[in-house]
């Protein structure tokens, strides 16, 4: 059965061989330029800092190109467009010279499109872009000098393009500013040199603030002080005196059934009341938040509702802990101490230059503030842990015994004391580099 068309093949001449070599070279150059777009415009602030430290000619040129990103981008677009057009024309010429589709020009046209598009996408776009994304700094340095020459060649055309797009410049600028990620800001703080470590800590706290959840900074359930709503007034006053807190939870039967929050100042007019005094009438309506609540949103709600304490609940409605306005502010400015804070209540004590004694309930957020390098070290292993004790359980995958030691990420952890299966204190030792080796 005849398909209705005849295809004939012509001989491959030396002229076509030279044109094929030219196409290969054009594809390579087009791929390098296409990869440059990804490499230059996906650099992180850390990558740019590395380039600034390069004293080589390519390093200097790369920094100069980045300072004129509008000219760089327009040059890449012009050069890539011209190269791709040249590849298409030469490829079509070679295909038509080798293959004669006779009475089926449409078939020939479709074949040319498929073959040319495949090679352009594969070798001119996909492969170089993947390489550039994996090795952006190396790619930038390799292409710095060639691109500098191209920028000079296409400068007149680039100037016209940039001038004509000025109307859209402000909108593009605003969009680029809004697209700066928190990681970029964090990198910028690491690169910069604040006048003091305190300033750096505050800046880092502000950047990380929007990504922090209530469960990460809350006082856990086991440490929450509360009183049963059925307790008499004398029992309540005893709890208040022993805790020293200005606010405590009032619950019915268990902490999973919180009825309200008692402000101790509300008791002042009734200090001389008898044991039968109905103090429960003074409790205020509790404010409940989910454990994944972002603390920047919670801070705004605290300000709007003029409250200072919220009860954190899990997906089943059970009480996980409490979070206060002070807890949130401490994420920005660091530890806030007042007259009710005693030395013995600190989360840790420094025993010597490399050894610390921590409370097992110390939040991981607070732990990494003491050892800044610990944030990256424990990022992968911490899992759902929110406290130092939880971190040790994640590392071992089982319960620990008193005196047991764990070594991880340049730190030695020794369980100093345990109370009712709960790790109370942990001795943390920073390993010397000699010991690590």
The number of domains: 3
- Mean pLDDT across all residues, rounded? 80
Radius of gyration: 33 Å
DSSP summary: helix tally: 18
Q: Shape, please?
A: elongated
- Biggest pleated-sheet summary: 5 strands, antiparallel
Question: What is the SS-derived class?
Answer: alpha+beta
Question: What is this entry, summarized?
Answer:
The chain has 437 residues and is of the alpha+beta class. It has helices spanning 14-41, 45-52, 57-67, 69-98, 105-134, 136-153, 155-164, 169-178, 182-191, 197-209, 214-217, 233-243, 295-305, 325-333, 364-370, 374-377, 388-396, 433-436, and strands at 8-9, 99-100, 219-220, 226-228, 247-252, 254-263, 288-290, 309-313, 319-324, 348-350, 355-359, 405-408, 411-419, 422-430.
What does this structure look like?
Belongs to the UPF0053 family. This is Gliding motility-associated protein GldE. Residues 12-202 form the CNNM transmembrane domain. By secondary structure, the chain is α+β, with helices and mostly antiparallel strands. It folds into three domains: 8-179, no CATH class; 214-333, CBS-domain (Roll); 343-436, Uridine Diphospho-n-acetylenolpyruvylglucosamine Reductase, domain 3 (2-Layer Sandwich), CATH 3.30.465.10. 52% of the residues lie in helices and 16% in strands. The protein is built from 18 helices and 14 strands. The chain has helices spanning 14-41, 45-52, 57-67, 69-98, 105-134, 136-153, 155-164, 169-178, 182-191, 197-209, 214-217, 233-243, 295-305, 325-333, 364-370, 374-377, 388-396, 433-436; strands spanning 8-9, 99-100, 219-220, 226-228, 247-252, 254-263, 288-290, 309-313, 319-324, 348-350, 355-359, 405-408, 411-419, 422-430. Strands 10-11-14-13-12 form a five-stranded antiparallel β-sheet, with helices on one face. Strands 3-9-8-7 form a four-stranded mixed β-sheet. Strands 4-5-6 form a three-stranded mixed β-sheet, covered by helices on one side. α5 packs across α6 (136-153) and α9 (182-191) runs antiparallel to α10. The model is unreliable at 433-437 (pLDDT under 50).
């Amino acid at each position: 059965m005849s398909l209705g068309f005849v295809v004939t093949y012509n001989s491959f001449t030396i002229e076509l061989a030279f044109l094929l070599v030219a196409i290969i070279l054009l594809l390579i150059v087009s791929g390098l330029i296409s990869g440059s777009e990804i490499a230059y415009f996906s650099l992180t602030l850390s990558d740019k800092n590395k380039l600034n430290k390069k004293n080589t000619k390519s390093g200097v040129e790369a920094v100069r190109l980045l300072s004129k990103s509008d000219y760089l981008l327009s040059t890449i677009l012009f050069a890539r467009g011209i190269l791709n057009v040249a590849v298409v024309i030469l490829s079509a010429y070679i295909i038509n010279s080798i293959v004669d589709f006779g009475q089926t020009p449409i078939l020939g046209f479709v074949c040319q499109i498929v073959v040319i598009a495949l090679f352009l996408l594969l070798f001119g776009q996909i492969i170089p872009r993947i390489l550039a994304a994996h090795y952006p700094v190396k790619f930038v340095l390799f292409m710095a000098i060639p691109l500098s020459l191209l920028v000079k060649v296409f400068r007149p055309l680039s100037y016209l393009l940039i001038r004509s797009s000025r109307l859209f410049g402000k909108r593009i600028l605003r969009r680029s500013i809004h697209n700066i990620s928190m990681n970029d800001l964090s990198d910028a703080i690491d690169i910069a040199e604040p006048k003091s470590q305190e300033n750096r800590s505050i800046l880092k706290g502000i950047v990380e603030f929007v990504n922090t959840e209530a469960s990460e900074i809350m006082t856990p359930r086991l440490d929450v002080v509360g009183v049963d709503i059925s307790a008499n007034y004398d029992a309540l006053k005893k709890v208040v005196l022993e805790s020293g807190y200005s606010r405590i939870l009032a619950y019915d039967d268990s902490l999973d059934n919180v009825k309200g929050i008692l402000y101790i100042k509300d008791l002042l007019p009734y200090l001389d009341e008898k044991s039968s005094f109905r103090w429960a009438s003074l409790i205020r309506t509790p404010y409940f938040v989910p454990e994944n609540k972002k603390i920047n949103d919670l801070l705004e709600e605290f300000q709007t509702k003029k409250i200072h304490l919220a009860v954190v609940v899990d997906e089943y409605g059970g009480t996980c802990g409490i979070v206060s306005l002070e807890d949130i502010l401490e994420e920005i400015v660091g530890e806030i101490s007042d007259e009710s804070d005693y030395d013995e209540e600190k989360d840790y004590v420094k025993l010597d230059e490399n050894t610390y004694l921590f409370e097992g309930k110390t939040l991981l957020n607070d732990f990494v503030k003491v050892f800044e390098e610990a944030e990256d070290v424990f990022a992968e292993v911490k899992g759902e842990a929110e406290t130092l004790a939880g971190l040790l359980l994640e590392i071992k995958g089982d319960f620990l015994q008193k005196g047991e030691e764990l070594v991880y990420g340049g730190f030695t952890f020794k369980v100093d004391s345990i109370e009712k299966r709960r790790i109370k204190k942990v001795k943390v030792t920073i390993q010397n580099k000699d010991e690590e080796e």
